[in-house]
Amino acid sequence: MNILTINARLSSIKLKIFRFHNKNKINLLVSAHILLSKTPSLTISTESSQETEKIELNGDNQHLKAIDTIFQNPKFNRYTIDCTINKIAYGGEDYVNIILLHSKTLNNLSEYNDLLPNIQPYNILVAKYFLTHFPKMKHYATFDNGFHHTIPKINQTLALNGSKSYGVHGLSSEYIANKLSSLVDDKLARANWVIVHLGVTSSICGIKKGKSFVTESTLDAADSLISIANGVEIPEKEYEGVIIKSYALSVARSISLATTSLGGINGIVFTGNISQNSTQIRKLILDNLVWLGAVVNKKANNNQKLKISDKDSKITILLVSTNEGYAMVNQFVEDKL
Hints:
This protein is an alpha/beta fold and about 325 residues long. It has helices spanning about 60-70, 75, 105-110, 120-135, 155, 170-180, 185-190, 225-230, 240-260, 275, 280-285, 300, 325-335; strands at about 1-10, 10-20, 25-35, 40-45, 50-55, 85-90, 100, 140-145, 190-195, 205-210, 210-215, 265-270, 315-320.
């Protein structure tokens, strides 16, 4: 069975095709990522290659044109698709676990467009496209806020105005939480961790016994940070500037707040494109957490190792690539097969 995962937002669209063999064997066949900027680009990645090319997406409905462009690529369209899984940013209280999608459901979900205007409307737009163009295929939805439904109410409420905090990067956090058991011993994997997802948008998720316990969205990335997220090197002097230093401090503050809610932490996981691409930003953040007992190993950090904490560190610090697509497929396998 070949499963297509779909992740759309204002600035990009990502499609991945996974091959499901059995519950213990799921592998990625091909991924496509279109960056919707002034000069759009398409990156096609397989197990053995990665190619990026500039493309033209003139006029309206760029997301739908982007899908057509991806399906015209021979490295992508060589695979048949048996079902789709759409990432939906927010499902409210009614939608938490993976569901079979219908037009009526999408209309209900569009009521949350104003909550996440840069993500939710594009999730809905692209999901409707696939429902319309592949009417005989089954289409599913997973919800990015779903992982956070275990957060206690006291941690869901913003103290300043009493409004509810809506979690993001839930699928990413779910993947990391499940991955920990294969990276550290079982006791440590079930302890208190803070997952630091740094990308175009960033978030902190505190987990306890593998479940989301507290989450907070941090600053949206400035232009220099977006460049880092997209794998573009920036001048060394920018790391000494106010923008990046204040960003690092903001992230460290969010980690501190999550640590308080958890009653202490045993580890930190860095994930997301900025985390993966910037040795300096990881160090700047951790330099603000020395009081917590966080000590980074310079060599391990510079070499992008899995474990970047020093032997003298009181907490374990890991650098782990996330895989939202795999988390989506895993939900499908666990709940629908």
